[in-house]
Amino acid sequence: MAHFTKATSIKDWLNQRLAIETVERVMMSEYWIPKNINFLWAMGMVLVITFALLLVSGIFLLMYYQPHVDTAFYSVNYTIMREVDFGWLWRHVHGVAASVVFLIIYIHMFTGIYYGSYKKGREMIWVSGMLLFVAFSAEAFSGYMLPWGQMSYWAGMVITNLFSGGSLHADGLVEWIRGDYVPAQAFLTRFFMLHVLLIPLAIIGLIGLHFGALRIPHVNNQDGEEIDFDKEAKKYLAGDKAGSKVMRFANDFMSKDMMVVGIYLIFFFYLVFWNYGFAMDAVNFDPADGLKTPAHIYPEWYFLWSYEILRPFSVDIGLVAFGFAQVIFVLLPWLDRSPNTVPANRRGLFAIWFWVMLINLIVLTAMGKLPPEGMFSQIGFVSAIVFIVQWLMLPFITMFEKKV
Amino acid sequence: MKNKEPLILAVVVIFSLITYYLVEPYAHHVMHKHVESEHFAYADLPALAANGDATRGQDLVMGAGACTGCHSIEAAGMPAAMEPQDAAASYGVNPPDLSNVGVIFDERFLADLIKNPAHALKVEHKFTAESGKMHPMSAFAGAGGDIDQEVADMVAYLKSIAIKAEDVTPKIAYENACGRCHAMSYEKWTQIGEKPSFKDKKDALAFDIKVLQYEDSLKAYMGKLPPDLSMYIRSRGEHFVSTFIENPQAQLEGTAMPRVGVTAEMAEKVIEHMQDSGDTKRAERESIGMNVMIYIIIFAIFALLWKKQVWRDLH
Lengths: 404, 315
Description:
CATH class of the largest domain in chain A: Mainly Alpha
Order of helices and strands of chain A: HHEHHHHHHHHEHHHHHH
Number of strands of chain A: 2
Shape of chain A: globular
Order of helices and strands of chain B: HHHHHHHHEEHHHHHH
Number of strands of chain B: 2
Strand content of chain B: under 5%
Helix content of chain A: 55-70%
Oligomer: heterodimer
Largest interface: A-B, 54 and 53 residues
Strand content of chain A: under 5%
Shape of chain B: elongated
CATH topology of the largest domain in chain A: Cytochrome Bc1 Complex, Chain C
Number of helices of chain B: 14
Structural class of chain B: mainly alpha
Distance between the termini of chain B: 12 Å
CATH superfamily of the largest domain in chain A: Cytochrome Bc1 Complex, Chain C
Distance between the termini of chain A: 54 Å
Helix content of chain B: 40-55%
């Protein structure tokens, strides 16, 4: 057993037992961050804050929500929205945060792709990040079921149907997932469990892994510069704060994080109070009705691009393309054969690849929402092909990339 | 090195806004038919032919017009002859009490309704010769004189007995314009009236049975049960509801829902009542929103100052 002495202060008492000074040093004051980074590097903190908003608002909603097909809609739209003090506020915060969190995730992800932050020792950051994306997607989908409105029911029907595997006709699997032939009580209760327990646990675990994966390779920078962190840290600690290429995570970078968070929250609360329609689909304010299919069924905006990769093809090919789209981003660190960890604008063909990918995903997103008729389905088809071809081309265009 | 952050911010904002524009305003524009409001002018209906005389109108309404054969007029001391569920069994829907129709509905609409109900209500497609069905309200064929004068007299009478427009609450407007077909459970409203709180469960169940009987007749008459409107202001939005009330056929061709015929002022009250059911916290949202914004802006200013202070030594 370790040797304990009589504590001289509360801090000392804690320090002997929890090594709080070491923890503080490792996690905060001597967690070195390069100085040449921009506000996009604060998206991680923005995500943490948004996740905290989701967690807290979710806890309040959980106190009144009833996971029963007969009362779920009522408990949300009457009890929470009308009866509970500030219930409407928690619901709007929860709904808007669930949508905005994906905007930030996409910005965060494309920042990583642009600056090559998935290469040379940073592969696990990328992989754990993509696992977080999958977990957040599952969390968003399961949460969308809970108000038991028309879009909950029909999106639940459509998405669980995907598991029949087209010509495989694995209807048994679909029934197993639903716990019934159609979305009903068993379906609602299990998605409730997933939403409030299992997936949040997975997310919290993955956030830990994502942070841990960052500690050893350090944060990337915007110039593709290789920094000797030990040398620069010594310089900083010796007092040459201005000359060192690195800074402390706290308070140096944290102060910038908080500045970005402050500006972000102005935008966020503007949406919560004045422009929440995009996150709370009107159709879902009609109670679920298994006998009345809505005229247009579409997922929330953040799933539209992958939905559009599924839609323009025949069932089986569509499912294969959809499956491809779901996993391909995870493999990015290995599909990119270039040794360069520099911003995309210095990587020749890869720069074009990046901007085409980004614009094409926006096109797919738009076409995923529009009804698949006439020109929209043709644009969607071409975009889906472009998406797949781009990924197949990636190893080749990066293989011949010149070393910079 | 020059500061690239404004450029990066511009790129992020522009791509986000393009995506937002495409999936929200543009997609909704493509998916939903846009119907312009006609400001409840009822321009397709003729203006009233003559100045009505309320006294003669009273005689017609009570006598030759035969209105009171089916309609109650509580304001004139004529209560309903039947319970709503029994009236619905006869007519499909409970004929409205006429006490306040003069203030709720537009005069052109009322005049046309008296002369040709299916035309005014825009439900002629339901009552074609082939269908063999007749609109439950029989048209007024005239009492021997100038029919337009007679109709104008009746409308004048109905206006004279109605309460003043400013005394019409959103609830009264809703009950008169929508309430005989559409329940609003969040406001305890059923098609046969507000559900009272009963002490005895048997009484509550007896009331529910009457509602179910009424709904059965209504379902047979309309083709399906008209929806509960508790959350319609959120699921359809103000513009849709307003233009749909004005002319259901413009939004949804072939619908069984009749044109409502309310005045512009009453349409606003109907919508206000729907907001009182489906968007009760709109005023609170506005005021709390302002306070939260003030708080967050102060937070952001402090965060900015803190960053400036910390980074002074880093450059």
